[in-house]
Amino acid sequence: MAKLAVFVLFKNVIHFGDRPFLSPKLVRDQCKNFIRSFQYVLGVVHPHRSNFSVELNRTLISDRHFNDIKNLEKYATKHINWYSRGQKDQVHPYFNYLLLDPRITNELRQRCVRMHMLDVWYTFLRAIFYIGKGKAARPYVHLRQALQLFQKERPNLTLDYAGRVRLARDPKLALILDIWRQQRGVLLLRGFRNIGSDDAHTREAAMIDALGMNHLTNRRQGAYFGVVRREFTIVQRKLLGIILLYKLFKLFMNKKRERELHPEHFIKSRSKYQHAHMSLPLANA
């Protein structure tokens, strides 16, 4: 046990010239991560409470289960091989996107060095509140709809009856307004660009099933097409969703900083909007 702890520490030695140096902060963080990993192995860590699917919750049990996500690539490959047949010369403008709550991520990229990877993975998943598909400026439609309600409530901080009914029917808009009221902005992550409509539908449906409708603000489940619809079982569809979420997780963690979308990004004249949205933060996968 002691030898293993020393090995973990010296894997992350900082070198100054030819002399290795262990930063006290680095030692402390590595010790915490080592203890956390050992607790996961022993099963003494309380499981993360979530509304995720059983299959996705399993990836949060231990390091081994998390690392097994990479073995799910075969499901994505099978789907891509089906869709790629006869599609090479066609132009596809669709993509998938996630809306995330920055109050949960809270600059996760910078904080992750002090966190165990399972906790980082869980934080990313918990921050996702909407999964969508579209092309061009489709993700910003939700934010413009929320802006209409946000501007109505600004004078007296109350909405009329129609506005309250709309929020009750669309929890996505209610959550966006709640984020804006706390002076934060919505995070937008775009991925899987340049794919077809059926492909985008299938990826969206798989990720929704993996995360679970009880966790998301999506009001409808997605639709499957092609080999995923014909041959995949319900469990395999969720496993496809997990590997897709993992790909977007890696994309998100490679971003240098979290760029939040505030109402000010959208309070522009209608004629200027098409030009303005091009400067908003985007992401690719």
From TrEMBL:
It comes from the Eukaryota. CDD domains: GIY-YIG_COG3680_Meta. InterPro entries: ANKLE1. GO terms for biological process: double-strand break repair via homologous recombination; resolution of meiotic recombination intermediates. One of its GO terms (cellular component) is cytoplasm. One of its GO terms (molecular function) is DNA endonuclease activity. This is Ankyrin repeat and LEM domain-containing protein 1. It comes from Drosophila lebanonensis. The lineage of its organism: Eukaryota, Metazoa, Ecdysozoa, Arthropoda, Hexapoda. The gene is LOC115623147.
